[in-house]
Amino acid sequence: MTQTYMRFPEGFLWGGATAANQMEGGFHEGSKGLNIADVLPGGKKRLTILQEPGFNFEIDKDKYSYPNHEGIDFYNRYKEDIALFAEMGFKVFRMSIAWTRIFPNGDEQEPNEFGLAFYDRVFDELHNHGIEPVVTISHYEMPVNLVKEYGGWRSREVVTFFERYVNAIFNRYKNKVKYWMTFNEINSGLIMPIMGLGFSIQKEEDKYQPTFQAFHHQFVASSIAVKACHEIIPNAQIGCMIIYAPVYSYDSNPENVMYALQEERLFNHFCADVQVRGEYPAFIKRYFKEHNIKLDIQEGDLELIKEHTVDYIGFSYYMSRTEKKEKTELEKSQGNIMSGVKNPFLEASDWGWEIDPIGLRISLNKLYDRYQVPLFVVENGLGAYDKVEEDGSINDDYRIDYLREHIKAMREAIEDGVELMGYTSWGCIDLVSASTGEFSKRYGFIYVDKYDDGSGTLERKRKKSFFWYKDVISTNGENL
């Protein structure tokens, strides 16, 4: 019997993904306020700096560079870039709205018209090219004022400010955006609360209590957003967004198997359980007890969370993670803000992220088995050094190979019975790396002439992968 493969469904949402803070630039244009990404230093030490206690959310240009301030100048070049996305055949473009373009300080009563008008222009341009926007409401872009004056998501007051923000954008863009997501990689706050939760753990501070209280405030805010979206834009879909990295046990030692299970449930499932199932899972209640975590849950919070769950799960997939209960420094691997132990069966990228296409199929199956809601791969890609040849070409066959194998894994998952909405490759145009603040860590189908030292013309060039992905989309994943 000849084996046949399930085709990608008709209407599959092919496209690319970005974030405002990594590409827009326009640091102070249009009355934009200062956000968290604006104060993040560039360079390979970024994550180390952010994980040290007491980060002060101040700009120090004598000490650091700030590549996010200019990004790739999408703020002024969006028409050129959207035309290139359309040339590839994008059905959707995942982007974020910069919160500080709409509410520069975060706590204003009225939104900033300049910011609202900018996204009107972007959405109109996308629609002119037949591309649907997929909008992340909060993508590591909290107003710095809310961090300094209120303590970020530690504060219940921030829920009110977020509600004001989502109501403003839902009402403004109700006829322009029908795919939304609430918080980007919400579970990242477990490891690095600065970017996702808007605060730095202070010296000698117990990290557990403020982190999980902040998560509770985000869960309430997410449900408020879901409720508002369904009421204001009844035909819209709104999802959550998590990092997903399946956790493998290093070996068959039951101690390591149990440890891997506990790590997977906490990191991969906790936030999704609350946002999709609408309640705190049993395993987290034990975790709270063991870490002496006592949440301040206000009347009506749990009912709100239960009644207003998300429509789908968006997730980023870059790598799997291998764990053992006791590990040495030499055994550790690098990854998307997380580390495990090195997997001897996997190769790694230039930045040490292990490459595991089968892990994407595993992830899709695990998520669908657990939640039975549509899934959307909204980030996946290879950060690599790209070389411009003398004739101007960029032959990124390594990126094509990476993406091809991951798309094959998605096709296998569809054959397994997974309901998959779409795929937006991360950094479809080169941008500032979130983890390192570098331009040299490139993901795009489109090369941007910009370098780590700040030099470059910002000229756009089509890479070899540009034409490959165009063919993938035009054949709905048949030609890989």
TrEMBL record:
<dbReference type="InterPro" id="IPR018120">
    <property type="entry name" value="Glyco_hydro_1_AS"/>
</dbReference>
<dbReference type="InterPro" id="IPR017853">
    <property type="entry name" value="GH"/>
</dbReference>
<dbReference type="InterPro" id="IPR033132">
    <property type="entry name" value="GH_1_N_CS"/>
</dbReference>
<dbReference type="InterPro" id="IPR001360">
    <property type="entry name" value="Glyco_hydro_1"/>
</dbReference>
<feature type="active site" description="Nucleophile">
    <location>
        <position position="379"/>
    </location>
</feature>
<comment type="similarity">
    <text>Belongs to the glycosyl hydrolase 1 family.</text>
</comment>
<dbReference type="Pfam" id="PF00232">
    <property type="entry name" value="Glyco_hydro_1"/>
</dbReference>
<dbReference type="GO" id="GO:0008706">
    <property type="term" value="F:6-phospho-beta-glucosidase activity"/>
</dbReference>
<keyword id="KW-0378">Hydrolase</keyword>
<protein>
    <submittedName>
        <fullName>6-phospho-beta-glucosidase</fullName>
        <ecNumber>3.2.1.86</ecNumber>
    </submittedName>
</protein>
<keyword id="KW-0326">Glycosidase</keyword>
